[in-house]
Specification:
Structural class of chain A: alpha/beta
Distance between the termini of chain A: 64 Å
CATH architecture of the largest domain in chain A: 3-Layer(bba) Sandwich
CATH class of the largest domain in chain A: Alpha Beta
Number of helices of chain A: 12
Shape of chain A: globular
Radius of gyration of chain A: 23 Å
Strand order of the largest sheet of chain A: 5-2-1-9-21-20
Oligomer: homodimer
């Protein structure tokens, strides 16, 4: 009899588990029947594409990569606008909001996250206040920012989502203010010196930053519509407002309170991405994506890694492990390695990338670091596209191994983050990284790259 | 008394030893006096920039990055148009063609290479036949290709230099034919399937390829000027001709015949880049660049690696080792690691990169391989610059470690070659490479990258 696999949640995490299983379905002799339950209306939605839609690069609709029908046509029981209200891992079923009960052989929890919302905002109950987490949010923001008379935008939060919303507002010509804590932007990815470069870039686009420990004391409205916010002593006009203060894993849900969650609030899993209950791994229940707690690859402490890129690797791991059980005599198995969260974003035309720990995160974990930082053109100056790149490399002061990297520039940042991710994963030292031969063509690279310079700086500093 | 360092040769290898030592000169208590002897007129010349000058991107003169005066102003005895005619390592001096004798404490041999020339070409003694190895060659080729009545170009050799010359000729509108052996282009870097992609690209630019084991039987001239070549039964018009058949290390020079050279013809060195004589390393004589034999990082066999990028790493190693001796109580030291030759070239607008071994080179070394190949857009299709990239990954069939990679595409190739170089250096397996998290922003990358796909293909094939 075909094995029942039920996936709860249809964000990138759930969709990628589904896609991977679909692609290898034929390898399972007894067959697999796949069910995906999602709250949203969409099929496969690229939420990472939404900031660019808001910036006017294309229609929001383009970010729906596949409609539900695409999966239904392949025999998937793909249910939208449906929620799971109870999970029973003891007996192996989930209950839907329609009261329907679905038995499963394998359950995959891809329940996502819920954006945080400060009490002062909740209590104000004003229109014109949004989170920026999914397609519906994007459509609402788009409608609101294009409405008549909208001149001022206010963003609470200086993470990627908040900055992407601010860039969209500034691009549209709105007077935009971002409120976040000190000292700089994207503090989970960038040290203040690197975050400061991004801040300067965005200030040139007209975005104002208030990066102080000032609370958002009040929201003022007019006819139920937000009109201004009070920050410290200052009242700042705000016709539209985005709250982007991070998001909590949807890991409690009151569905099975005994599933283990960690200090980050996400599901605790073992290396195979099984969730745990009563101190044991559940061999047929997996969790994936924003609702999961990962182990940091450098500090070995639990944390969240709410990136699509993290979800995709976890989805691959889960698929391999399910198939490893279902395919006869298979040795298929993937462990999920500790996470170093390589990340990249185009924020208003500046590319900002990071991987591993920041200096501050290392210090908080008791790791002493040696840093090297360099700025250089990415290719010979007489070639088109010879823009500057700033690289900061963070090494463990004891082992001299690379444990973090941060890049700010206009090109090559994504690919370099991937290179440095491999270097961190492989434990390369500052000396090894400096002495690595790098390919050269003057129209594409430098004979002595900024990586070599940054590693050399770290070596010189000790 | 200041230590005398004499560098023989002023290509990128010699220049980088000089630059590195200059930058750290002050660290040596007793001081260093630096002498560089070179045959050419130029100071620091970027020969890698010459193909683009020929393609009309800028003047040839721009490729001279520094004039000799630049180094002379820093106290370097920088001598151009001068040759070393004898080296005496027993007594520690070199003799110049001016009969002057220079004593040294440290000697660095950066003697470069001499382009190969088939006997049939030598014997024809015709004008209009060039090698493409240095600035003088480029100036001669430029003058000749722009002369009146020049319509047909012929290139002997399908390596990087030959193809770059062919592209320059085709760009200029000359009817261009390239003669090389089978089966495809750049055989030392690319497997035939990947080389075939480059061939197709260049054929669209009007370049004709004859890739067969056909000898160049004769050159025909008119008034001492080449007019055609005979290949097999065919006479091919050729008003200008470039011979690009590789280059032999300048390692004999009849200067000190007892310095050890290897089967590749290059100087044999130890890990510190010391040359050897009578079975022993000479602790104050180094060799660097095109004249050196390296150990291949995969096959562990000796070979050449005549890239500027190789020279630059060796120059760094030599500088560290000289300073390690001269700076009191220093532990400074760099070993030169076995070489995996990451390489990249823009050949007529197509980027071609490679690192490690080809399938064929692996087979020749008795290494069985498992390959994975994939083609994919480098970013989401609705973003500008979403071009296709083809990646071929070559894994050791026993260890499953990455031992080679080849890329053909229009962007991101250089940075990816560097990533894959780190992966080879660190011994990453196909499964590790496939499961690596990669940074994602749809305007810059794919959620599942071509690297993941190529690694997956390799895993599926076993």
């Amino acid at each position: 009899m075909a094995k029942e696999v039920v996936i709860v949640g249809g964000g990138v995490a759930g969709i990628f588990v589904l896609r991977n299983l679909l692609a290898k379905k034929d390898k399972v002799g007894e067959g697999m029947h796949l069910t995906l339950i999602k709250r949203e209306r969409s099929g496969w939605e690229s939420v990472c594409g939404l900031p660019f839609a808001l910036r006017g690069w294309y229609e929001i609709g383009l970010t729906e990569i596949q409609k539900p029908q695409f999966f239904q046509d392949q025999g998937v029981d793909f249910r939208t606008e449906t929620e799971v209200v109870q999970i029973n891992v003891a007996e192996g079923f989930v209950t839907l909001d329609t009261a329907e009960v679905l038995k499963y052989d394998y359950l995959v929890l891809a329940t996502g996250r819920t954006p945080s919302m400060p009490a002062v905002v909740e209590q104000a109950k004003l229109e014109g206040v949004y989170t920026f987490n999914d397609e519906d949010d994007a459509r609402e923001i788009e409608a609101a920012m294009n409405a008549e008379g909208v001149e001022h935008a206010f963003v609470r939060g200086r993470g990627i989502n908040g900055l992407q919303a601010a860039v969209a507002f500034a691009t549209k010509g709105l007077k935009t203010t971002v409120l976040g804590g000190p000292p700089s932007l994207l503090p989970s990815a960038l040290d203040p010196d690197m975050g400061g470069m991004l801040k300067e870039w965005l200030e040139k686009q007209g975005i104002r930053f208030i990066l102080e420990r000032k609370p958002l004391t009040a929201l003022k409205g007019d006819g139920g519509q937000v009109k201004s916010v009070v920050v410290g002593d200052e009242e700042i006009p705000a016709d539209i407002m985005v709250i982007a203060l991070g998001a909590a894993p949807n890991a409690d849900l009151a569905k099975d309170p005994e599933l283990e969650t960690g200090e980050s609030g996400g599901f605790v899993t073992d290396s195979a991405m099984h969730v745990r209950k009563g101190g044991c791994s559940l061999n047929n229940v997996y969790a994936v994506g924003d609702c999961v707690e990962v182990i940091d690859g450098i500090t070995h402490r639990p944390r969240l890694s709410q990136f699509a890129s993290t979800a995709v690797v976890q989805a691959l791991v889960i698929c391999e492990n399910i198939l490893g059980e279902l395919i006869e005599q298979s040795t298929l198995y993937s462990p999920y390695a500790p996470c170093i969260s390589p990340s990249i974003a185009d924020i208003g035309g500046l590319l900002v990338g990071a991987v591993g720990v920041t200096s501050e995160a290392a210090a908080r974990a008791g790791i002493k670091t040696v840093n090297g930082k360099a700025t250089k053109l990415i290719k010979a100056r007489y070639f088109p596209g010879a823009t500057k790149l700033t690289m900061k490399l963070i090494f463990d002061a004891f082992t001299r191994k690379l444990i973090g990297a941060q890049l700010v520039g206009e090109a090559t940042v994504a690919e370099r983050i991937n290179e440095l991710a491999v270097a961190i994963y492989a434990g390369l030292t500052a000396a090894e990284l400096r002495n690595m031969e790098r390919c050269f063509d003057p129209s594409l690279s430098q004979l002595v790259d900024v990586t070599t310079d940054a590693a050399e700086k770290a070596l010189e500093s000790v």
